[in-house]
């Protein structure tokens, strides 16, 4: 069965939950899926396709996601790769499209990754550690802005493309 690796990088679990929902949709298309934290990925050789997503912090991807792209650029180039990031919170979050940070855009171009999806994020005041995080998680930005219908639809589309691009 075709194997897909879904990798996430985040700090507070919001991006991991997105990765798990993506994996559920891919499994529904009879793909074999592993979900891994970017920090735990030793290699991608055994997978036919990769989905990689990071939380956005200070307009950057998490370092473990960037490291994964850097370390495995040659192997990633040889298989289809879909990228997403999660972050925008507050009113209108659903409409925000965030460009890839420059370093990630450079790596994405090297591996010829598919166009990046932006998903809303979650700012939970109860999880906020530190002054800036507490400020970020206050007011109208506080809450869960992940659009599960959008995420599921994107994942279904990725699944269809994996099935057509990779011989089953
Ligand atoms: C200190 C801090 C900085 C953040 N910076 C950004 C940012 O630059 N752009 C953005 O879209 N979201 C930003 N966010 C929102 C996070 O990306 C969002 O909360 C995301 O869902 C976190 O994912 P995680 O739970 O997997 O860590 C920031 C959040 C915090 C607490």
UniProtKB/TrEMBL annotation:
Q: Name one Pfam family in it.
A: Flavodoxin_5
Task: Output one GO MF annotation.
Answer: FMN binding
- Superkingdom: Bacteria
Q: Which residues form the Flavodoxin-like domain?
A: 4-159
Q: Name one GO biological process term.
A: heme biosynthetic process
What is the name of this protein?
Menaquinone-dependent protoporphyrinogen oxidase
């Amino acid at each position: 069965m075709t194997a897909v690796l879904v990798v996430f990088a985040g700090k507070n679990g919001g991006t991991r939950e997105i990765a798990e929902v993506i994996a559920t949709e891919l499994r529904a298309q009879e793909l074999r899926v592993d979900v891994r934290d970017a920090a735990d990925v030793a290699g991608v050789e055994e997978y036919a396709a990769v989905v990689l997503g990071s939380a956005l912090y200070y307009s950057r991807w998490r370092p473990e996601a960037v490291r994964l792209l850097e370390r495995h650029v040659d192997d990633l180039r040889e298989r289809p790769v879909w990228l997403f990031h999660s972050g925008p919170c507050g009113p209108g979050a659903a409409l925000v499209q965030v460009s890839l940070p420059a370093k990630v855009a450079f790596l994405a171009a090297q591996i010829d990754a598919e166009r990046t999806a932006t998903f809303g994020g979650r700012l939970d005041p109860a999880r906020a550690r530190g002054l800036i995080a507490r400020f970020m998680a206050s007011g109208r930005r506080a809450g869960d802005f992940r659009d599960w219908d959008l995420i599921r639809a994107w994942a279904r589309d990725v699944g269809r493309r994996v099935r057509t691009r990779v011989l089953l």
